[in-house]
Design goal:
Oligomer: single chain
Structural class: alpha/beta
Radius of gyration: 29 Å
Number of strands: 23
Largest sheet: 6 strands, mixed
Strand order of the largest sheet: 10-11-9-12-13-14
């Protein structure tokens, strides 16, 4: 179950954004502010103000929250107060109520019960969500806007003058900021989104982009169903591009529900292989058929496979009746269609009443691309398969014997990985959940990279492949160097590998306890000479053996990942670009000076910028734009990609 925590001051757009994100994802929605307002409404109705009296009133008037994002409601006892809690009187008194520790503790317990009751996911908005209510939320957003934008939005909601709303918001911000523990505090790992210049749709898209980038949205599940020996497992192997599912000519080889991750046309989804379904099973077939029926319930799309050579049997008709009862998107697949003649015969499958049959030859691949195109169109945007737990993934990478495993153990505070003076002790990537710096991280300790993959052999070759796979899975790579030794070609190759993979990067200079004054001077020269291409990378000096400065790694990781996911509003980007071009236009090429029209940020993780121009832009000017982008917007710890797209004048 995924929790999205959205914090921020009143009027920043938390409520509208949260509802739309929850609706789009099919998740629950919780407005924690509405609960405090409900308590304030009750206190006003009963004319009470002390925490003891309010708690007594709450025991007789339980608060209920309906977590439907399309129509959220809050009840005090049997009274629907969803509208009444937005009154000016309640607004004026809610800050005083929310400052009472006893009330906060009671509502905190209620909020966590509501969060835990969500089945697939929940978007929680309010104040101190990421710091107090849901500190372990996989995605934390801090939504802010300037006071003018907030006042205008709130004014339109409650039909009050902008000036009075602005004054009320300022007063409330001041009260909240002066508390011992301010509810306006931003969680250290929250993503800051300034909605001042964004409309609601753009703000929702920014949150959605983060959910997709972190793989927090459930992947759609496509269940492959059918009688035994119609080619379900062969079809799955064709879809995923490798022989994972066991295939034999004997019917009934597959028995359990087995899931495989597949990607087509930029969409990731889960293919579920099932055992052959039988209408009158006996022996082990009873459990196999029951498992297939469970797959029907779990899946988002049902793919019914029929052997086109055999045609539809009575057993297929019975399964079709079962499939119709479930009322989910359905795809009828005619398998083993190897020729045009087979395709003409397979049209008889229209008689099943499931619509147009999709022709494919799982064995030879005929029609498989068209079939996948159709399946992807039928899939929902968010499915039922949760593939990520929300922890940020960090890979420890470097050549052998630089202290990667020692660093992992130092961060964990205990021996998690085997450490030995012999280089190459670690051979398989080791995943570990480690809590340090106020967050839980998923660290991947990898084998040291000795040679290029095409030059390595045996154990080294497979260790290199696993390390490259770990790099693809991670969000930030911690490149560990031995500060006591000269920076080598292997070290530089590892850094280049991370940069080309487009991952956030933190360079750790380990074994700092072995660095003397002479070595420090030499190291500074090596850094200037070898690491000038990645001067944007965060650098931390540590001594893993003693734990010296290990606390500095968490802030560096947060900074790098925050930059990796940063998006620059299009208006700000083009304002910056216009000023840059005015001061330093692009160089003349072939007697003509290319004209730059506009730029947009095409993606995050890492930040990708596309600049549209009338002609080719020299690589040196591209590097100049990247350098100025970093000066203007930061991006410490992440590579930045700048692409030029030549666009002819309309």
């Amino acid at each position: 179950m995924i929790v999205v925590a959205i914090d921020g001051p009143s009027g920043a757009g938390k409520s509208s954004t949260s509802k739309l994100v929850a609706q789009r994802a099919g998740w629950n929605y919780l407005d924690t502010g509405a609960l405090y307002r409900a308590v304030a409404w009750l206190a006003l109705r009963e004319n009470i103000s002390s925490a003891e009296d309010i708690l007594a009133a709450l025991s007789d008037n339980t608060i209920h929250f309906i977590a439907d994002p399309k129509d959220p409601k809050v009840f005090v006892g049997d009274v629907d107060v969803s509208t009444d809690i937005r009154s000016e009187k309640v607004t004026e008194s809610v800050s005083a109520i929310s400052a009472l520790p006893e009330i906060r503790a009671t509502l905190l317990s209620l909020q966590r019960r509501l969060i835990n009751s969500a089945e697939r996911g929940i978007v929680v908005e309010g104040r101190d969500i990421g710091t107090v209510v849901a500190p372990d939320a996989p995605l934390k957003i801090y939504l802010q806007a300037d006071i003018a934008a907030r006042a205008a939005r709130r004014s339109s909601e409650i039909a009050a003058p902008v000036s009075s709303v602005s004054e009320s918001l300022n007063q409330r911000d001041e009260i909240d900021s002066n508390r011992a523990v301010s509810p306006l505090a931003k969680a250290s790992d929250a993503v800051l989104i300034d909605s001042t210049e964004l409309d609601l749709e753009e703000t929702v898209e920014r949150v959605w982009e983060l959910l997709k980038e972190r793989s927090l949205l459930g992947l759609p599940i496509v269940a492959i169903l059918g009688r035994p020996n119609v080619g379900k497992s062969t079809l799955i192997n064709r879809f995923i591009g490798r022989r994972e599912a066991i295939v034999e000519d004997t019917p009934g080889v597959t028995r359990d529900r087995v899931q495989y991750e597949c990607e087509w046309g930029g969409r990731r989804f889960i293919i579920m292989d099932t055992g052959g379904w039988e209408s009158k099973p006996d022996g082990i077939s009873v459990q196999v058929s029951a498992s297939a029926e469970l797959a029907m319930q779990e899946a988002d799309v049902l793919a019914f496979v029929v052997d086109a050579h055999v045609g539809a049997l009575d057993e297929d008709d019975i399964l079709v009746q079962e499939l119709r009862k479930i009322k989910k998107p359905m795809v009828l697949i005619a398998n083993k269609v190897d020729s045009d003649v087979d395709e003409a015969d397979a049209h008889a499958l229209w008689n099943l009443g499931l619509g147009e049959p999709r022709f494919v030859s799982a064995l030879h691949g005929r029609g498989s691309g068209d079939l996948l195109d159709y399946i992807v169109r039928e899939m929902p945007e968010v499915g039922g398969a949760q593939t990520q737990d929300g922890y940020r993934k960090i890979a420890l990478i470097g050549r052998p014997n630089v202290g990667k495993s020692s660093l992992l153990n130092a961060l964990a505070g205990e021996n998690r990985s085997i450490v030995d003076e012999v280089a190459g002790t670690t051979r398989d990537p080791v995943d570990e959940l480690i809590e340090f710096g106020g967050s839980i991280w998923r660290f991947i300790d990898t084998a040291g990279l000795r040679k290029r993959a095409n030059q390595a052999s045996g154990t080294d070759y497979y260790a290199t492949l696993r390390t490259q796979s770990a790099l693809e899975r991670c969000e930030c790579a911690v490149v560990v160097l031995d500060a006591s030794l000269p920076i080598s070609e292997q070290d530089l190759r590892v850094i280049t590998m991370v940069e080309e993979a487009g991952k956030a990067m933190v360079i750790v200079m380990n074994k700092w306890d072995l660095v003397d004054e002479d070595r420090r001077d030499q190291l500074d020269k090596e850094i200037d000479r070898h690491l000038d291409q990645v001067e944007w990378a965060q650098r931390v000096n540590v001594a893993a053996k003693t734990g010296w400065h290990r606390d500095r790694l968490a802030p560096a990781l947060r900074t790098a990942i925050d930059s990796w996911e940063r998006r620059v509003p299009t208006a700000k980007l083009n304002s910056f670009l216009g000023a840059l071009i005015g001061a330093t236009p692009p160089p003349v090429r072939g007697g003509k000076q290319p004209k730059i029209y506009y730029a947009t940020q095409a993606g995050i993780a890492p930040p990708k910028f596309v600049i549209f121009s009338s002609g080719w832009i020299e690589p040196s000017y591209r590097r100049f734009i990247e350098r100025r982008l970093r000066e203007e917007f930061g991006f410490p710890g992440t590579p930045v990609m700048v692409a030029i797209r030549v666009k002819e004048r309309d």
